[in-house]
């Protein structure tokens, strides 16, 4: 067994994050890793007497006992999903340190990890809501300072008809949508560096083409070079995370459907609607997994299970069933 290289935890966290950057995580994901690692490390430092500030905490101080105590304090005010994510961050951090021969072993198996259920889908509520949203946003709104319905519809349609995540939308280039007529597809840089290809139906292709035509009229032919970003703001600059979230929120408000958007879902509600409709139309978990870029089949299976539950609830609400209750309770056969 090799000796521990006693180094600063703060410095090793940054070294780990630099190594992870080669996987091209989103800035949001990278920030979550840093936040989880630094938060628990600060609590681990507080377990010592006298307490060690983060910049003085050495890796040799992170024994299984200290890590258990730090995680117990970290978990107290937080949801199981947050604790589970932090545990995974630290497990990845220590696995990196073992591979780099900085530490002899990973203490995280000795630290309890809460079970967390798979997140449940949060599609838009209401059978006609996606169509209502698209129809409303496709019309120019005189209240907007600079209406651009072609761009707004393209954003919504790529999420509703291709199931793209926020970071995936921002990463699209003009050349990401390609292929011959009838065989068009969008190449997606997926979560965790997993690329995938999603078929583009003619209707979505027309929406994207209409958006690019409107962009040429606004900013000139050079604005739609193949290597340029696909989605831009009203100045022609690449859309950013906050700008895209605001755009989708404003579309919900303009369509008057804010009460049909599940809490905390925002743009993800469009992706969940895409997946839910796939399940309703008979797609299997493997197909949903490939189209949405899930890492595991279990995530895709939740859409099928939710859809099955909704179907059963719909059957249960059938008034004919109440007639059967009366027949079976004693009237049948008399």
From TrEMBL:
Gene3D superfamilies xrefs: 1.10.150.130, Intergrase catalytic core
Record's keyword annotation contains Phosphoprotein: no
Residues annotated as domain Core-binding (CB): 7-98
Pfam families: Phage_int_SAM_1, Phage_integrase
Boundaries of every Tyr recombinase domain copy: 119-316
Keyword GTP-binding: no
Keywords: DNA integration, DNA recombination, DNA-binding
Chain segments carrying region Disordered: 108-130
Identification of the protein by name: Tyrosine-type recombinase/integrase
